[in-house]
Amino acid sequence: MDKFTKLTGVAAPLPIVNVDTDMIIPKDYLKTIERTGLKKGLFAEMRFNEDGSENPDFVLNKPAYRSAQILVAGDNFGCGSSREHAPWALLDFGIRCVISTSFADIFYNNCFKNGILPITVSPDNLEKLLDDASRGANATLTIDLEAKTISGPDGGTITFDLDDFKRYCLLNGLDDIGLTLEKASSISAFEQQNAAARPWA
Questions:
Q1: pLDDT at res. 184
Q2: What phi and psi values does residue 150 have, to the nearest 5 degrees?
């Protein structure tokens, strides 16, 4: 998993409340367990018209936001069914950070396991960030995970809280497997001791 330390990128505004996982990636795209190739399904029902053409009014189809790495979204982002394909699709598109006033619990935890930083802010701060994100090509935010700050294009800074363990995992690029591998030497030593003490096991 890629480390998340500091990210400076274009932020796209998505001021929609209750964006569920089916909106993030519709069920038609859940036929694979591969983590790549899912960006085509990201927000598919909003990004594309029925004939397959792009909906020019959807934010990620606008030229200024096609390479957005940050999403500033409405309350209760990621609600609905517990599909890990949702963070996979966001990451495959290039989104490394989602900012909202609240997240559904399963989606929130899945983000950390896939190298995405979900940040919870107050409603007042979300409004400021949505205003920053509405500036098109100038909608650049800097997320500093070490300092736990969000810096806007005008130099203003917002601080955010995050569980120390989750922060440690992102800063070091550790998913569940990576955390286990950190203990590889201890696990190996235990196995050797156990084999010597219980050769019949």
A1: 65
A2: -120, 125
pLDDT digits (tens, 9 = 90+) for 29-85: 888 777 788 999 999 999 999 999 999 999 999 999 999 999 999 999 999 988 899
Write phi, then psi, for 93 (nearest 5 degrees). -75, -30
Of residues 163, 36, 29, the one with CA closest to residue 103: 163
The side-by-side arrangement of strands in the sheet containing 97-100 is 117-120, 97-100, 70-73, 6-14, 140-144, 149-151, 157-159
Q: Is the dihedral of CA 116, 126, 44, 105 positive or negative?
A: positive
Phi and psi at 115, nearest 5°, equal 85, 15
User: Hey, what amino acid is at 112?
Assistant: F
Q: Map tokens 């957005």 to a residue.
A: 68
Answer yes or no: are the C-beta atoms of 82 and 21 closer than 8 Å: yes
